[in-house]
């Protein structure tokens, strides 16, 4: 039979492809609806070339609620390479806190003055209005699982925070996280909207609600 020579997609691959197209249609539908919120997770799509993997809605909500409590009334929160947490915080607009997003991806400049272009290779190349130790808590998710990336991001974190740090990175970075930031692993296990090969964990240096 000549049809035997035609390559066939496996049922698993077909299902995954169908799911991808359905997700895409859903996102496009959201963008055209009046209810679309520019701060919702997925409003800006992941760019895997930039090592972007958004948190699940539940994880982003949990982390956003945690930093609001940790920052305290009128607190200032910095999200370093953690845009899905920033988006969740903005969904709570009107609450008594302020937030800014430090991010390499300039698509997030749609968020106006709260957006700060950030390249971890130049950890202290920050605008003058970001004063040292001016944030009640910094939540950071370094884009790469390397000590170099963590070390440089740690310089930024230590410059910005008054003390509290919430770090999200791979479980394999536990030793380096303790070394560079003095943080300890929490019991809470963050999830992503797409499964990652590497086990992910949260680390803090204060008494948090994540244990």
TrEMBL record:
Keywords per UniProt: Cytoplasm, Methyltransferase, Transferase
GO cellular component: cytoplasm
Subcellular location: Cytoplasm
Main location: cytoplasm
InterPro entries according to UniProt: DNA_methylase_N6_adenine_CS, Efm5/EEF1AKMT1, Mlase_EEF1AKMT1/ZCCHC4, SAM-dependent_MTases_sf
GO biological process assignments: methylation
Bilayer-crossing regions: none
Protein name: N(6)-adenine-specific DNA methyltransferase 2
GO molecular function, one term: protein-lysine N-methyltransferase activity
Keyword tRNA processing recorded: no
Keyword Transferase: yes
Catalytic reactions of this protein: L-lysyl-[protein] + 3 S-adenosyl-L-methionine = N(6),N(6),N(6)-trimethyl-L-lysyl-[protein] + 3 S-adenosyl-L-homocysteine + 3 H(+)
Domain of life: Eukaryota
Organism: Dryobates pubescens
A Pfam family it matches: N6-adenineMlase
């Amino acid at each position: 039979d000549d049809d035997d020579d035609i390559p066939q997609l496996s049922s698993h691959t077909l299902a995954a492809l169908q799911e991808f197209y359905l997700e895409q249609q859903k996102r496009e539908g959201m963008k055209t609806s009046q209810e679309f919120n520019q701060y919702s997770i997925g409003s800006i799509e992941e760019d895997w070339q930039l090592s972007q993997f958004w948190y699940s809605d539940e994880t982003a909500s949990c982390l956003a609620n945690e930093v609001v409590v940790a920052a305290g009334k009128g607190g200032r929160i910095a999200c370093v390479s953690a845009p899905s947490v920033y988006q969740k915080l903005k969904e709570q607009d009107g609450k008594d806190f302020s937030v800014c997003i430090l991010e390499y991806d300039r698509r997030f400049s749609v968020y106006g003055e709260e957006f700060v272009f950030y390249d971890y290779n130049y950890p202290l190349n920050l605008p003058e209005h970001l004063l040292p130790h001016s944030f009640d808590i910094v939540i950071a998710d370094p884009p790469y699982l390397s000590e170099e990336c963590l070390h440089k991001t740690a310089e930024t974190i230590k410059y910005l925070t008054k003390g509290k740090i919430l770090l999200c990175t791979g479980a394999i970075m536990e030793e380096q996280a303790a070394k560079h930031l003095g943080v300890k692993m929490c019991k809470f296990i963050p999830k992503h909207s797409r499964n990652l090969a590497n086990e992910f964990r949260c680390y803090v240096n204060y008494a948090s609600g994540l244990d």
